[in-house]
Specification:
alpha+beta; four-stranded mixed β-sheet; 3 helices; 44% strand; globular
Length: 181
């Protein structure tokens, strides 16, 4: 069966600097009419940066939607049309002060496919060396390092709950277990 829906109309309710919100009217595979609320987002990157000692570079950052400080891998928003790898290398240096000799793709994920078209590109960075931090004027975060196994334990315990961090760290952990990185 073909599950694709036919778009009958798109009505933009909000256009912002980071996201747009639109309501689509669609025709379902069964022939019915329905509405779909869609958040348009340019996408982003998440980076698992591994030090020469085998630790993972992490950030503590306040996240307004949850009114909480989250423990996350470095990440950032793509500019429209920007190459994800270039964005990842830029964000890693801007947020942590690190550059990397090796910057390899781990694939991508759809973090909220029920209502958003955001795609997050995942990378692993190795061979870290000092660059220069250039954080955004409204960006406040602490950078720290932690052993991967400690981070995996925190994921299992539920103290790390950011989706991009959970997926990317578990993926790197499994790839290391398989001797793939």
């Amino acid at each position: 069966m073909d599950f694709h829906e036919k778009t009958l109309s798109k009505d933009y309710k909000f256009k912002g600097e980071v996201v747009n919100l639109r309501v689509d009217t669609v025709k379902t595979p069964g022939g019915n009419s329905a509405t779909r609320e869609i958040v348009e987002h340019p996408g982003g990157v998440a980076i698992v940066a591994i030090t020469d000692e085998g630790n993972i570079v992490m950030e503590r950052q306040y996240r307004r939607p949850f009114d909480d400080i989250l423990y996350e891998v470095p990440a950032g928003k793509l500019n429209y049309g920007e190459d994800p790898k270039e964005c990842g290398m830029r964000e890693l240096e801007e947020e942590t002060g690190y550059k990397a000799k090796s910057f390899e793709s781990l694939g991508f994920i759809y973090p909220s496919p029920g209502f958003s078209n955001e795609t997050l590109h995942l990378y692993v960075a190795k061979g870290l060396y000092q660059g220069e931090m250039h954080r955004d004027k409204d960006e406040y975060l602490d950078v720290e390092e932690a052993p991967l196994q400690e981070l995996v334990d925190q994921i299992i315990a539920g103290t790390i709950s950011d989706a991009k961090t959970v997926v990317s760290l578990l993926k790197v952990n499994e790839l290391i277990r398989r001797n793939k990185i």
